[in-house]
Amino acid sequence: MPFGAYATPMIMGELRRHFRDRTWAVHVPRGPKDIMASVVSARDSLAGELGRSPRVPEIATRMGLATDTVIEALEANDAYFTRTLESTGAHQQEAAESAFDNVLDQQVLSSLLDHLAPRQRRILHMRFFEGLTQMEIATRIGTSQVHVGRLIAASLAELNRQATEGADGERIESPPTS
Length: 178
Known about the structure:
Blueprint: H1 3-22, H2 30-50, H3 56-63, H4 67-78, H5 85-113, H6 118-129, H7 134-141, H8 145-165
């Protein structure tokens, strides 16, 4: 018997065992691992047939298994990858800080917009909040698209000036960065 005929199945078996036993984030018994793929396949085919997510008893009936066995296999499917608790908390904290920053930005923008003429506010609102094009704005207010572009540019320049100088005309210094 040639060496390759013996070595190939042995090496393939060892590789399969390694990936089955060592690459999981959490230890899962072999039984749920072995039926996991067929349970997921049955779940997906039932979802296509039913037009909704199937219930565990429906999957168990389809496969001829106990509901506890199906539950273990579905849980095993979720155990391959894990997330740390710290990363979830950090993500929630970042989301809360981002939401707070958005509220502050809206307050600052609102106070800056109050210093613009009503027509300028209306044009900026149509452009940035309603998502209208310059041509659509021009049609609504009865002017040319080129003029709308100039009005938007002038309004944005005024908002920028107010943001950097303040309402009283004094220059606001940005905090030093470290």
